[in-house]
Design a protein that fits this description.
The chain is of the alpha/beta class and 366 residues long. Helix content is 44%, strand content 13%. The strands form 2 sheets. A 6-stranded mixed beta sheet has the order 1-2-10-7-8-9, with helices on both faces.
Length: 366
């Protein structure tokens, strides 16, 4: 019963003492997508996490992680992400009134450094790549005795990310019947909400871990398939699942830099492998590789269809649908009942200019 009420209020298994004064993320819209439904030939809903205050889903987990650390006595936050995790940490620090340092590699764009600083974070530039920035962040954090906020590998962060599944289940239960014919069996007075698939992108695996946790918490873990999309050149999870062990890529060659973890979290890999290591039709984690071209093209089509800008990292998930039915055959095969839900994770490292430059780079006509 406690689990059912936790699911109802969309906060999942977050510690209620930690979030007694509220959470930092917002309950984002879940919208029926007519263009995407027409493409796939079945109901598609989009979960709009670009509308989180920090620009991406990251605030769900990182906001909760920071709140919990504060409750346990942390006096400062440190992040080593020059991307969406850094922005989420800086936002959380500002919201909670906790001094925050973000250590970024020299490759971090100026406009992101400015945005971090505008949130009140102290921005330190160190090293040429993330691993060097991370070492410096660890060193500074040890000196400050604060909380080192990892971009993706933290169970509290996964608990925060799981809220997107709780929200989706709650919102589908209230959606108009005509638009959820796939979601509800007509004779069902209780309206048990089923989800056939959640389509997401994967970097280090934090979002995937949160989705898998949320499906367990809502009783859907043996029903809902998770389609885990990555771009070629940032496909560490797919490569690892195929190899049956964690594989480290020699480098990240994709433009989807936010997916750029050279190796996935080993804990998340283990979680995913258990659901992948089955015959193809009954797989509940289905990895998917898409090209940078397809990811960028999906961002452009999504902007036209839904008037929202997202990063190519998020475009990897969108490409799973925008590739159309033929390309989606592998993951559509053997789906159970319910609609397809696309986790539109967002990403703040994009603007019209960035997207237009990518379109030009890949020869995509506007």
């Amino acid at each position: 019963a406690a689990m059912a009420s936790a699911a109802r209020d969309a906060l999942g298994t977050m510690d209620r003492d930690v979030v007694a004064d509220g959470v930092l993320h917002v309950h984002t819209p879940l919208l029926f997508s007519r263009p995407m439904s027409d493409l796939l030939g079945r109901d598609v809903y989009i979960k709009l996490d670009p509308f989180q205050p920090s620009g991406s889903f990251k605030l769900r987990g990182i906001g909760y992680t920071c709140q919990k650390a504060l409750k346990h006595g942390a006096r400062s936050f440190t992040s080593s992400s020059g991307g969406n995790a850094g922005l989420a940490t800086a936002y959380a620090g500002a919201a909670l009134g906790v001094p925050t340092t973000v250590v970024v590699p020299s490759t971090t764009p100026e406009f992101i450094r400015d945005r971090l600083a505008a949130l009140g974070a102290r921005v330190v530039v160190h090293g040429a790549q993330w691993s060097e920035a991370n070492e410096e962040a660890v060193r500074r954090n040890e000196k400050d005795g604060g909380k080192l906020v990892h971009p993706f590998d933290d169970p509290d962060t996964w608990t925060g990310h799981a809220t997107l599944v709780h929200e989706t289940v709650a919102d589908l239960a209230k959606a108009p019947r005509t638009m959820t014919k796939d979601a509800v069996s007509p004779s069902d007075d209780e309206r048990t909400t089923k989800i056939a698939a959640i389509v997401t992108c994967v970097g280090g695996g934090g979002l995937l871990a949160g989705i898998l946790q949320g499906l367990r918490e809502t009783g859907l873990s043996e029903h809902t398939r998770v389609v885990a999309a990555e771009t070629l050149g940032a496909d560490s999870m797919t490569t690892s699942l195929e190899a049956g062990k964690v594989v480290t890529l020699p480098g990240i060659t994709s433009v989807a830099k936010s997916l750029g973890a050279a190796a996935p979290s080993s804990t998340v890999f283990t979680m995913a492998y258990e659901l992948y290591d089955r015959d193809e039709k009954s797989r509940l984690v289905m990895p998917l590789r898409v090209t940078d071209h397809d990811a960028v093209n999906a961002c452009l089509r999504f902007a036209d269809d839904h008037r929202v800008l997202v990063e190519p990292a998020c475009g990897a998930a969108l490409a799973a649908v925008y590739g159309g039915q033929k390309k989606a055959e592998t993951w559509l095969k053997g789906l159970k009942d319910g609609p397809v839900v696309v986790e539109v994770c967002g990403g703040a490292i994009v603007d019209r200019g960035v997207l237009e430059a990518y379109a030009k780079q890949f020869g995509i006509e506007e």
